[in-house]
Amino acid sequence: MTIQALLGEARDRLSITGDCGIADVPELAARLDAIREAAPARLAIDFTRAGAFDIGPAWLLHEAISGLRARGAEVTLEGTPPVHFAYLDGLAASDAGAPPAAPETGLLPWLAGRGRDLEVRATGWYAALTFGGEVIVTAGSRWTRLKGLRVASVVRHTYETGVRAIPVVAMIAFLISVIAAYISAQQLRPFGAEIYTVDVVAVGVLRELGVLLTAIMVAGRSGSAYAAELGVMKLNDEVDALESMGLNPLELLVLPRVLGLVIAMPLLTIVADAMGLVGGAMLTRYLFDLSWPQFVARLDDAIADTTFWAGLIKAPVFGLVIALTGTLRGLQVRESSRELGRLTTVAVVQSIFLVILVDALFAVLFLEIDF
Amino acid sequence: MQTVVSARDIVNRFGAQVVHDGVSFDVHHGEVFGIVGGSGSGKSVLLKTLLGLRHPDSGTVEIEGREITSMGDAELREIKRHYGVTFQQGALFSSLTVAENVALPMHEAMTLAPDTVASLVELRLRMVGLPLDAAVKYPAQLSGGMVKRVAVARALALDPKLLFLDEPTAGLDPIAAAAFDALVLYLRKALGLTVVMVTHDLDTLARTCDRVAVLVDGKVIVDTLEGIVANDHPWIRQYFHGARGRAAVPQQGADGGT
Question: Is the ipTM of this complex over 0.90?
Answer without folding.
Answer: no
